[in-house]
Amino acid sequence: MVDELVLLLHALLMRHRALSIENSQLMEQLRLLVCERATLLRQVRPPSCPVPFPETFSGESSRLPEFIVQTASYMLVNENRFCNDAMKVAFLISLLTGEAEEWVVPYIEMDSPILGDYRAFLDEMKQCFGWDDDEEDDDDEEEDDY
């Protein structure tokens, strides 16, 4: 009985390892497809879109507000393409390069729930790349004092 359980456990561990390897390969394929899609989207822009296609973001803190405004504006005028949070997050990810792309890979690898939550994803980006909402709130309070 114990020998059978040991064999069963061994078989399950081997299957788990094989599935983990397959999952890693699929995640890499997904990453490549997202990058390829971004490249294609940059080449095929709808002529009627009044908002230009957003620029890529590589992690510079000073560019984060601009990146968020560009992407939000683009998604707003193309809302039929971005019908849920997962699509919005995937769009943002497709525009990440360099340090920002490296930052998002672990979230993709662990299939983080944040990938389906646009607000939470933006909050993580702001925290990682240096957008402090508290400073913005302090500035607003100072302006209110005038």
UniProtKB/TrEMBL annotation:
<protein>
    <submittedName>
        <fullName>Protein LDOC1</fullName>
    </submittedName>
</protein>
<feature type="domain" description="DUF4939">
    <location>
        <begin position="28"/>
        <end position="138"/>
    </location>
</feature>
<dbReference type="InterPro" id="IPR032549">
    <property type="entry name" value="DUF4939"/>
</dbReference>
<dbReference type="Pfam" id="PF16297">
    <property type="entry name" value="DUF4939"/>
</dbReference>
